[in-house]
Amino acid sequence: NRMALVVCSGSLDRVLAGLEPDSRQEPASLTKLMTAYLVFKALKEGRIKLNDNVTISEHAWKMEGSKMFVEVGKQVSVENLIQGMIVQSGNDATVALAEHVAGTEPTFVQMMNNYAKQLGMNGSHFMNAAGMPDPQHYITARDAAILASAIIREFPEYYKWYSQKEFSWNGITQQNRNGLLWRDPTVDGVKTGHTDTAGYCLIASAKRDGMRLVSVVLGTDSMKAREDASAALLNYGFNFYESKRLYGAGTPLTQVKVWKGELPEVGLVLKDDLYVTSQRGHTGSVKAEFELPKTLVAPLAADRPVGKAKILVDGAVIATHDLYPQQAVPAGGIFRRAWDSMRLWFN
Question: What pLDDT score was predicted for residue 243?
């Protein structure tokens, strides 16, 4: 097996070290992270619920490989199927969830590839929900790190299942295959994968002193090798890098003029804290560049972005984030609107 690995900052998807990070690799059960991302999206958007009962199809029940051991025709809750997919890596549970979200597995796979594009996973392509081998089913180490980071960042309420050490169903208890959960108390996920052709794979994540790192190891020759390599990558990242908060959520990065509004100007803010990960003792020179419309005209809603901030460290762009008004700005009175209309005419 050709090995690929990467360790990145969980907050910024910034790669700190890598070996063939963009080579195509067989993901095996790491595929289930993409499936989980879609399931979590559907939950957050209210399209499905944790207590939905899913009737197990013959297609899901017949899945080969690792199983939750659900029975055809029986009903199982979404919450239990999620644990069967994450903790037990059940191919049957995974396909049942895909069918519940999208009706059929092929439709779900189309959604997987669409979401992968949205996340910027440009080196990956999926052909099924569970990770069965296929020449057109592949992932890169960089993309796997992007995906894991997105799950951790977007779905903290569901990420908890990735640290669950065992799950019982149908009288069968299976342990989480991520051995780092026992070796390192700071590790809280994420997912293992294995087939004869993919080798032994592991996406791991740990949080120490407020800093989160994600490691990806693909194509090793044993469970011990994937765990040792993952532990070494995480330790390297924590020993040689640190994360610092650059801007706090809600703190204005700049003030801009507002036309035709109740307020003459408004601060523009980030929705989330912004961190930078850099070598210990060297944060570098930090600068924010703004992409804003020529004129901002009220009304402005606090939950709609009005521009972007490019964050540069030592001259290199490390992140681009949406900027939001610090507060809503209603339209001004008739005099204010008329006066500003006239000024804009000559501006």
Answer: 84
pLDDT at residue 311 greater than cutoff 90? no
Task: Return the active site residues.
Answer: 29, 32, 89
Torsion on CA atoms 115, 116, 122, 125, rounded to nearest 10: -120
What is the β-pairing status of strands 254-257 and 241-247? unpaired
The dihedrals phi and psi of 175, each to the nearest 5 degrees, come to -90, 150
**Beta strands 265-269 and 316-325, pairing class:** antiparallel
Strand partners, 266: 256
Q: For 37-60, what is the HEC assignment?
A: HHHHHHHHCCCCCCCCEEECCHHH
Q: Which helix (H) or strand (E) holds 15?
A: strand 14-19
* DSSP label at residue 122: T
* Cβ neighbours, 10 Å, residue 98: 27
Across the range 217-242, mean pLDDT stands at 94
Give the sign of the dihedral formed by CA 19, CA 25, CA 31, CA 34: positive
* Residue 340: its H or E element: helix 334-346
Q: How confident is the model at residue 13 (pLDDT cuts 50, 70, 90)?
A: low
Q: Is 319 a residue whose pLDDT tops 90? A: no
Q: Cis omega (within 30 of 0) on the bond before 299?
A: yes
